[in-house]
Amino acid sequence: MIPAPPPGARAELPPPRPDLPDTGVAGRPAVTWGWLEAIGIFVVGYIVIASVLAGAIVFTIAGIDDAGDLEGSLELVLTIVVDVVFIGLMIAWLSRRHPGWVRALGVPAKGARLRAIAWGAGMGVLLYPTIAIVIGIPFSLLLEAISGEQATTPDQLPAELSVGGQVLAVVLAVFAAPLMEELFYRGVLFRSIRDRHGFWVGALISAVVFGALHYVASPWQDALLLQSVMVFTGFAFAWIYERGGTIVGSIAAHTVFNMIGVTLILSGAA
To answer: pTM value?
Structure first.
């Protein structure tokens, strides 16, 4: 059983809608979309509209014809634009098709949001070294033994960024990526499975998808190391969401987790 969150983490929310069963996270209503609809919004919203359409706009403005020409700051700009567009599409879809989504995802009332953020941020601080030591080191050693080559996580940011590029990297890692990924992977995908099949099934499937989609072109042992670490990280974010009872908590945890990571990368410590 998932232990109860700290006092105040479960926010004061409006009374439940009578047409929705209280089988969701922290007794909130179950979400009204299924996993097929969740996958559909990702394919249509992220891949087709955000990536292709927004990408075409960025390419046109930048005056390039091939995605292979993307580098440095421009690559970060494209990723931020795609994430922001997808966030907008998800909110529009949820608001139109599933008007009870805010309460179902456990968005707290204004007076409880700081407690939820503090709870999630604290979990993020604890999560980063835990993942690095408990998951990263053993998996790195295992993959090195199997491949005969050193296994290290591949770079997730372009090399040799300018000051402006570093600012863009922080915007992506600390703002755009946590909000987009938590809203989709935990809020939309995890909940669509969890509310019908339980926490463990929902957390495992959403974590595997989360890890798989963090593929970075690199030697196989490096790519697999990153994906494996991200699977466990995704599972941990689902646990934080479940225990805290609010999507705000997992967003805060993800933000702090990425903040630590990008700081280490940009400082040369990682």
So the answer is: 0.88
